[in-house]
Specification:
The chain is 46% helix and 18% strand. By secondary structure, the chain is α+β, with helices and mostly antiparallel strands. Helix 6 runs antiparallel to helix 10. The longest helix has 23 residues, at 244-266. The two termini are 38 Å apart.
Amino acid sequence: MKTSAAKRLSSSSSETGTSSVPALERGLAMIETLAHRPAGLTLSELTAALDLSPASAHRITGTLEESGYLRRDEVTRRYTLTRKLLLLSQPRGESRSLVAAAAEAMRAIQQQTGETTQLCCLADDHCVMLDQLASIHPFKYIVDLGCLAPLHCTAPGKAMVAFLPDAEQDALLARLKLEKHTEKTIVTKRELATEIERIRSHGYAFDKGEHFDGISCVAAPILDQHGHAIGAVTIAGPSSRFPAATMVERGQFIREQADRIARAFLS
C-alpha cells in the first residue's frame, strides 16, 4: 500500500506531467514517511512504501545519510531519522527557542546550586550542548558549546534516553556502544536498562564520575506534551561538591526547573 507521501508524489507527477524537482520531492517524502516510523524501514520497505525504483531509493537514502538526516543500522539495515531536523528547527530571531525558554530556569538553577548549568539535546547518538551558565565557584567544570558527549554515561544523556518514545528508545539502545570512560561507567545493556527504569521512576538522572573521574552531574529531561524528551537541563562540577546527601534534593529541584522550561517552550 502506498503511503500518503507516495500518493502525493504520484498526484504531483500526474498533474504536471513531471515534477519540477523530483529528487527533492522524493527526499522529503522519505523523511515524512520515516517520521511516522520511529523503528525505521529497510531500503526495500522504503522502496515499496514510496513506490520508488530500488536505484532511486538507494540514491536518496545515500544522500540523506551523507547529509546527516538519516542513519542506517548495520545490524537491522533499517533507516531512521537523526535529530538533525530538531536542531535545525530551533527558532531564530524573535521566535522563542528552547535556549530562550530555558534562560530563567537555568539562572535559577545556577543561583540555587552554584554549579555550572547546561542545556542539552539529542543529536544522532550523542548529547549536544546548546547553552551553558558557568559555576559561581573559582574551580568549575565548563565545556565548549556544541560539543558532543556520550549518552550512556552522562546525566543529561541518560535522562533523555529514559524518556524517548519506546520504539525510538529500543532502536537507540540496540545500536549504542557502551564505551568505558572510567571505572564507574555503565558498560552492559542490563545495567543501563536498570538505570533507565530508575530514571523514569524518579524523573532525574545522576552521573557520579561515569564520564570523567571526579566530575558529577544531576540532570532532568525537558518533556513535550506527550511526555517525551526534547532536551535536558543539568548541573556539573567536582564530585566533592556533590555529596550523596544532596543528590536527591538537587534532582527534584532540577526536575521542577525542567518542567518550568517545558511550559515556557510549549506555551
